Amino acid sequence: TRTRCSPVSRGEGVLLRRRPTLRLPTPRLELRPPEMADQIPWARLRRDSEGFLKDWEPIWARDHLTRNAFRNRVIWAKRMIEDGRGAPLFIFANGADDLPAGTLVGAITLDNIRRGPAQAGTVGYWIGEPFARRGYMTEALAATRDHAFGALDLSRIEAACLPENAPSRALLERCGFKYEGVAQSYLQIAGRWRSHVLYAALRSDRRGRTEPARG
């Protein structure tokens, strides 16, 4: 998948010189960078899914759902893609199943890309409560993994989740990630420092079986 650039355009008063057009298709989805037109459906999905998400995420900033904060998110995503430092993507239905085309279902971000000897990055994701357990994130993570190992030429993708997050652990294992250990006090989640289990996928993976996900 290629990232192309369009002529200079103005949006929300911000000059966007190299507009990324990265698209990752899957059988039921399309992944692309966020745009300002996505703010209302994004804020609605986040707000409606707050109870579903809050136990797995850092505490939201006071302005988390505002238009100004979303504008910063859009600018950050474009710069990440333009600079080759990441791929922050929103996940949309493409109309192939019962969801209308263009329905926002969640987001996935590949970031913290390290070049040189490492050639590695980190992936994180969330899905709206109405769309959980339908296989959408499996498609999205697989597409992001393939983009990382292909167009971005990475060798390793890392991910972390709370030990008790059985659905996330199962998702990672379905997509070829393998358990590597535990990081103590890894992130602040819901206002507390929490240890996380660490997973990684390798472009050429010769590792054997690893510890299965536990509930």
Please characterize this protein's 3D structure.
The protein is α+β, with helices and mostly antiparallel strands. The protein is 25% helix and 31% strand. The chain contains 5 helices and 10 strands, in the order ββββαααβββαβαββ. It has an 8-stranded mixed beta sheet, sandwiched between helices. It is globular, with a radius of gyration of 17 Å.
Question: How is the secondary structure organized here?
Answer:
Layout: E1 9-11, E2 14-16, E3 24-25, E4 29-32, H1 39-48, H2 50-53, H3 67-82, E5 87-93, E6 104-114, E7 120-127, H4 136-149, E8 156-161, H5 166-174, E9 178-189, E10 192-202
Parallel strand pairs: 7-8
Antiparallel strand pairs: 1-2, 3-4, 4-5, 5-6, 6-7, 8-10, 9-10
Please outline what is shown here.
It is built from five helices and ten strands.
Radius of gyration: 17 Å
Unreliable segments of 5+ consecutive residues: 1-19
Mean pLDDT over the residues: 90
- How far the N terminus sits from the C terminus, by CA atoms, comes to 36 Å
Sheet-strand content, in percent, reads 25-35%
- Oligomeric assembly: single chain
- Provide the succession of SSEs: EEEEHHHEEEHEHEE
Describe the global form. globular
The count of helical stretches stands at 5
Give the helix/strand class.
alpha+beta
Largest sheet features: 8 strands, mixed
Strand order of the largest sheet: 3-4-5-6-7-8-10-9
Helix content: 10-25%
Q: Count every beta strand, where a strand is a DSSP E run of 2 or more residues.
A: 10
